[in-house]
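Sync notes, pocket subgroup
Present: LS, DG
LS reminded everyone that the earlier model was apo-only. Rerun requested with magnesium ion included. Inputs:
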Amino acid sequence: MTSTSNASTTAPRDEEARAIYDLSEGSIEMKPLLGGKGANVAEMMRLGVPVPDGFTVTTAACVEAMDKGGEWPEGLWDGIQEALGRLEERTGRKLGAAENPLLVSVRSGAVISMPGMMDTILNLGISDESVEALGKEADSPRFAWDAYRRFIQMYGEVVEQVPAHVYEDALAAMKSDRGVEQDTELSAEDLQELVQQFKDLSREHMGEELPTDPREQLRRSVDAVFKSWLNPRAGVYRKANGIPDDLGTAVNVMQMVFGNRGDTSATGVCFTRNPATGAKELYGEFLLNAQGEDVVAGVRTPKPLAEMEQVLPDAFRELVDTMKRLEEHYGDMQDMEFTVEEGKLYLLQTRNGKRTASAAFKVARDMVEEGVLTREQALRRIEPAQLDQLLHPAIDPEHGQEPITKGLNASPGAAVGEVVFDAETAERRGKAGDAVVLVRWETSPDDIGGVIVAQGVLTAHGGMTSHAAVVARGMGKPCVAGASGLKIDAKGKTLTIGSTTLREGDTITLDGSTGEVYEGALKLVPPQVNEDFSTIVGWADEVRRLQVRANADNGDDAKRAREFGAQGIGLCRTEHMFMDESRLPAVRRMILAESDEEREAALAEILPMQQSDFEEIFTAMSGLPVTVRLLDPPLHEFLPNLVDQALHVQRLELQDGDQRELAEARHLLAQVKKLTEQNPMLGTRGVRLALMYPEIPQMQVRAIVRAALKVKADGGDPHVEIMVPLVAFDEELRRMREIIDETVAEELEQAGQELPYTVGTMIELPRAALRADEIAEHADFFSFGTNDLTQTGIGISRDDAEGAFLSLYVDQDIVKRNPFSSIDRDGVGDLVRIGCERGRSVKPDLKLGVCGEHGGDPASIGLFNEIGLTYVSCSPYRVPIARFAAALAVLDQRERDEQ
Ligand code: PEP
Ligand code: MG
């Protein structure tokens, strides 16, 4: 068995690498150089699977051309002509010749598949000379003239930038003139006339004759495919999928085989398993007498693959055998394209199939049970993001509403949003934070920007393998495709289904799992994880080294986190308990207190509330560690906003009302003014606040100890860890530890009980990371607060940057990713590394965790594993993803060590 998915993505750049390989010379190992399509077709040829002959221009040649501003590497054109000569010899045909003409396809083929994003030219080689011969061969002049008009249409549009509508309008005019509806009803003579019209139209738009020499067309086509790597939609797709911009695309030149040579010809796509459910069953679609693009573009509605058995039995049997063989060979579910030309089967492409999350889990589990994969190989077949998809909410099954229409269940999950009819509006509104559903007749690759930000996609046309379906599945985005009852008026911005008309801005709900569409916003329910999911995450647990905890600050979240497999709580933010409306008045009394007594009284009110929260959490996490962090935010966060309060005072003054109320409002305003800071994130918060008002941490520590003792008395097993935020100096932690230890001792003495506990600190300021050795003297554990460490390490505001320059930085590649979602490996990551090394230099067994957002981000988890942290802590829903990503991190590390 060959493993394909792990192949490196970077092509060798050595001088010796050739720019062109015949398909017979390639293999899957050469994927970085030949791209996915080229390497897979070569591999199939190696295995003896029938494929059209051809050659591949390498990704390295494309990269070199891009590096030189589009200028081709020296000798490339000569090399292509030689490879073409060899192909002509092998096939006994000549490109564009009047006898035995060779026709080729010119297709892009990136290392990482980017469906539909780059360019393809079919039927190249058809010309005034060869068209007759082709017609004779196929015994159908109509077929030849149709191939010719398709070629000019595709070539003109892709290579010479003639607007698509120019040809479409001419085709439509011809059909209307002849009084027919379908392209297929046009005669050979009609098509011949259309070819002439297309040539004239091309000349008008190009300002020169359409080149007639197929070799020149080939040269320009290869160039256009190179350049399509840089087209905007491909760029957007790469960014959305984290594909590097510098990989380039290969170009595959392959002999054309025709699925439209009559009723013994066909074209289709198939998967070796059902990509929506993962079931091992025949899955695919085909069209008799059609070209491949007709299936993918959803222009005609294809038939289920099973029906091919009746019409093309031999080709069908060979296809089924080939599917089985290729799946075994690659050790993964395959997505294949095929053509049958006059009864003979050809495979045009095979690749690891994109699948829904639930299918990915089922396929991986089944393949282990079938003995095709080991557990570790099966883990590799799943993307961490797919766990996220399974953990998405679904529509409440109790909704009781009738759907307004039903289409294909193209990509699962529920989406609620306002209808928009074009990708640009979707993009603009989605980026502004609005929930939108993109509704299109059918999507095209140009819609990609809108698809990315939409909650879901609804199309009126196209099948399970149409563009919208493939792209949405790949992104884990709910999609209902081919809802044919839908009438869309994109200009008037309305959609009509039966008697219901919806306008832009109206809300709809999609159920991508059933294909149903509902008017209005339906209630969503939390996701249900199934047995395949639990089994595979269980396998991840056998591999991973990092522990996974959750960030939770109430009993419910703690319970959910435990159900998801959290091994404790890595961060309980105690301030969230203060924000509750029923508690805020007491908290404000504490802040506004004018004497120690007043403050003590307010704290005494808050203590039992905190205690009851802690009891719930310790109970839910009995037997597992719970890190409780002492109060972190600046106090003004618990007070009204300065402007609002000033306006409130002004209003009361104008009303000349209750004097007591006015006095209280003025007092509050004065306090807000006093506590307001220019840079609150760098101000009186965390340990600084605790040292200014030690009675606050004292109250919190008492609440923690009392809660733990109560849970213990009830038979629970609390593991208490107390954490101090925002420490920069070792002296801060030394003093805080003294306060904590003294308070715990007092409480335990009063209760006459024992309670093991530890005291640690957040490392979330650069100084703390740099002086971690000094700080470690007073800490039993560190937890890296990578949110604040990113803010202070890079010097960017976590509250403002993302809405300001940071999105531009990400768009323009000044930074690769948003550093608040995925850790800045080189900068902030280094601070974490330094903090670990220095901390462990004085305490080799120091427990080290991370509890910022990055604790649930798969890419960051790779780094934390490498650095040697003890655990990551993330939100409850991300716990399974973190468990899984931690296993992948170990496998990646092992692979790197072996190299
Ligand atoms: C952090 O800074 O990473 C952290 C976890 O703390 P908070 O987000 O509460 O500041
Ligand atoms: Mg913080």
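DG: Residues 1-15 have pLDDT under 50 and may be disordered.
LS: The two ends are 20 Å apart (CA to CA).
Action: DG to write up.
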